[in-house]
Amino acid sequence: MMISSVFPPALLFIAGAFLIPFLKVRAVKSAYMIALPIAAFAVLMSIPEGTYGMMRFLDHELFMRFDRLSMVFGYIFVIITMIGMIYALHVKDDSQHVAAFIYAGSALGVVFSGDFFSLFFFWELLTLSALYIIWSGGSKDSHGAGFRYLLVHLFGGLCLLSGIILRLFQTGSIEFGYVGLDLGLSSWLILIGFAINAAVPPLHAWLTDAYPEASVTGAVFLSAFTTKTAVYVLARGFPGAEVLVVLGAIMTVFPIFFAVLENDLRRVLSYSLINQVGFMVVGIGIGTSLALNGTTAHAFAHILYKALLFMSVGAVLFRLGTAKATELGGLYKTMPLTLIFCVIGAASISAFPLFSGFIAKSLITSAVAYEGLILVWLALLFASAGVFHHAGIKVPYFTFFAHDSGKRPKEAPLNMLIAMGIASFLCIFIGVFPSVLYNILPYPVSYVPYTADHVVSQLLLLCFAAVAFGTLMRIGYYPPEKRAVNLDTDWLYRRGGPAVVVYFGRPVARFTAWLGGTFVHALPRALIQFGKNPTVYLKIAMDTILLPIRTPDARPDAKKELAAAKENCPAYVLKPWSIGSAMAFATLFLGIYMLVYFIRSMGG
Question: Which of 166, 197, 310, 568 has the fewest Cβ atoms nearer than 10 Å?
Fold first, then answer.
């Protein structure tokens, strides 16, 4: 039942963002940017569950949906916006703050959209605002990565829009709810549009290409919204789609190998992000209440601990200007608080007991086990060990320990430490008191994570992963950190794109230039000249056509006469044609006439 309207939480962020540049007092501006998320959270808490109309568009009702699934994502989006803004208070570029709020507001708009038109609008706004955040990195690499990000997401948006239009013709409704794969092409196009934003392979490399090139603060926001809005719409539209189980399992496994080899620690975290989203996609594909609860809980927890890891590495990048493992090490001596927060994030993503990842990820793995999907369960088990290997150990080890780089930077700024402290507290609080999160999940939860067998099995898994890492490091078989570029699927369009332009674009450009020169310049000029003396130009044309068939004795004189006619046009004095030329022209004209007459008679 449609209820009257409420104030859209997305509008609070998007409209509020444009006031930021007008606040000139720094303290007032900082207070305002923290107050906006607090106000948005209060608005969310005051809205009862239900559907709320917004406006009519093209004879369709646009509305918002507030239920338990959308509210969970709404809560965490607002929370991480506040934490991200505290982390970014030192940034003096107001445009970055504006873009971040629009980005967060777009994510809220997607989450609470009840119709496909509203969803598509916020979906594209999400892309454009993320693009600016990527470009805020300010380097040549960030500009290139931003353009590639835009191209991939424009393709995804085109697939989504095409699917929406086809679905509208098929069903006559724009309501966004369960989509499924029963309607054929429209359903698959919508799924592809959603999956691209979720970084489902093979179109996943936009994430590892773009996120590490964003600004220090921008990467924190990027890690929270694009992929999680995709997780939400997949959970809303495609629960139980078995293809997602396969795709999600692939997502959990393949990034591990890239992350182990990667030297840029923000790129390591980007591959780890794909790995974690893979767990969520598997849960959506299973589609049971336990699996969907696990997906939602994991998304909630992941946003916090992934942002915490990006913040800790970002603090190092802010102080030293690099996040390369080969250029770091020994930073525990001067950045101890950042180290502690990084370890908390690493423990959370590794699903240590008493940390948030443990109580969230276990819901998904248990749902997989209950369904008897042994191969998928083994893949998730391997992925759990792998994520501890590269995100739980590699990131803090090579950043703060490993070899001593000799660098002694200052501790992170106070606002960064406060933001990391809040995120760390929430990671531990949720891990210790899982019922706080379980109570707001979409379905009732009877799951108990802290059983003896579960705790012991998880600790054994983590211990084996730690021993494997230590052994490989000890015997020298762990892949060394190198200044190198790892090839991913983006190589196909990063290298293939220029090749297509070279081999196909240039001939097309030449042909286009020829068409332009012919029809814009040469042909009009010829018609103008022809109008000055039509008979001379007609004779020149006929003499040119007949020249190859003239006798060898007559050809030299014919060439001279033709050259003189061309040189002196249009003032050339027409000489009478020979009897042979006149007869040839008459025969050609008669032949053309008879051919046209024959074609017309055949058509009649």
Answer: 568
